[in-house]
Amino acid sequence: MIPIRYIIQLVIILSICFMGDILHNYLNLPIPGNILGMMLLLVLLVTGILKLSMIEDVSNFLLKHLSFFFIPAAVGLITCFSILEGKWTALLFISVISTFIITVVTGMTVQILIKRRRSVE
Amino acid sequence: MSELAPYLVGSPVFGIGISIITFYAGNLLYKKTGSPLLNPLVLSMLMIIGLLLSLHITFDDYNRGGQYISFFLGPATVILAVPLYKKISLLKENVIPILAGISVGSAAGIVSIIVMCRMFGLDELLSLSMIPKSVTTPIGIEISNQLGGIPSITVAAIVFTGIAGVLLSPLVCKLFRINDKVAVGIAIGTSSHALGTTKAVEMGETEGAMSGMAISIAGLVTVFLAPILAKILM
C-alpha cells in the first residue's frame, strides 16, 4: 500500500509542473514550462512557502532513478538513423571537444576569479 | 504463446515492461563493473533498440508504453530545484566566480558546438540538437524541443558528453593546472552534468558538492543562452 503522503507529494509536484506550463502559455515566455516550474519550485523552497519535507520523498525517488525516465527519448534514436548516417564520428568529436573546452574555460574562469578575490582580501 | 505476442506488443505494458527490465539489467551490469562505458541508460537503450530491430517492432509500438515514462520528464525537471536548493548555501562564499565561470564556460561550449557543426557541414537540425548537449538530460530535452532540434539526438550526445567527462575531466584539470577544489567541481558539473559529477564525488567532498550544484545552474544558464547564441550565430 502506497502511503497517502507520497500521493500528496506527487500531486504537489505535478501542480507545479502544470503552473509552469500555464506561465509558459499565458506569458508567451521563450522558456519551457518545466523549467519555469523548476524556477517556481526553487522560489517556493527558498521563501519557505513550501517545506522540503512536503515533496522530499517523491523527489528523492525520482532523482534516484532519474535516468530511467530518459529511456524512451534515448530509444527514439532508432527513428533518426537515416539522418545520422555517416555523421556519428562528427557528433562524437563535437561532444568530446566541446566537453574539453567547457571544462577548461569554466575551471580557469572560476579559479582566476577566486584567486583574485583572495589576493584583494 | 505466439498468438499472445501481438497483444503484448499492442499494449502499453510492452514498452513499460521492457524499459524496466532492461534498465534493471543495465544497472546490475553497471554496478558489477563500475565502468562509465557501461552506463545503465546506454545499455537499456541498446538492448531495446536491438530487440525492436530484430523482432521488427516499430518505435510507435514501443512508445505506446514509453510515452507514460516520458510523461515523468516534467516532474523530473521540476524537482531538479531540490538538489539546487539543498546546495544553494555553497554559493554564498563564491557567488561571482561560480556564476561567471558557469556562464562563460557554457557560452564557450555553445559557440564551439556551433562552429564545429559548421566545420563538419552538419545541417541546421543536427546543429540545433547538439547545442544543449552539455546540460542535464531533462533540461537538454526541453531546450532541444524549444530550439526545434531532435531530443533523441540531444539525449545521445548528452550521454556521450557525460562519459567523456568522466574519462577526461580529471586529466584536463590537471593538464591546465586547475587545482582549486571549487573550480574543479564547477568545471566538471558544467561540462558533463550528473555523469561527470560521479567522478567529481570520487575526487573529494567539495568537488562533488560543487559539481552537483553546477548541474542545475548550468542547465538554467543554457536555457537562456542557447536561443540567443543560436539566433546570432546560425
Could you explain the architecture of this structure?
The complex is a heterodimer of chains A (121) and B (234). Chain A has helices spanning 4-27, 33-46, 56-64, 71-75, 81-84, 88-120. By secondary structure, chain A is mostly helical. Chain A starts with a helix and ends with a helix. The radius of gyration of chain A is 21 Å and the shape is extended. The mean pLDDT of chain A is 94. Chain A has 6 helices and no strands. Chain B has 234 residues and is mostly helical. Chain B has 2 domains: 5-71, no CATH class; 90-233, no CATH class. Chain B has helices at 5-10, 12-33, 40-54, 59-71, 73-78, 81-87, 95-119, 124-130, 137-147, 151-175, 181-203, 205-233. The longest helix of chain B is centred in the C-terminal third of the chain and has 29 residues, at 205-233. Chains A and B meet through helix 1, helix 2, helix 3, helix 4 and helix 6 of A and helix 2, helix 3, helix 4, helix 5 and helix 6 of B.
Give the SSE map.
The complex is a heterodimer of chains A (121) and B (234).
Chain A: H1 4-27, H2 33-46, H3 56-64, H4 71-75, H5 81-84, H6 88-120
Chain B: H1 5-10, H2 12-33, H3 40-54, H4 59-71, H5 73-78, H6 81-87, H7 95-119, H8 124-130, H9 137-147, H10 151-175, H11 181-203, H12 205-233
Helix pairs in contact in B: 2-3, 2-4, 6-12, 7-8, 7-11, 7-12, 9-10, 9-12, 10-11, 11-12
Subcellular location (chain B): Membrane
GO molecular function (chain B): hydrolase activity
Organism (chain B): Methanococcoides alaskense
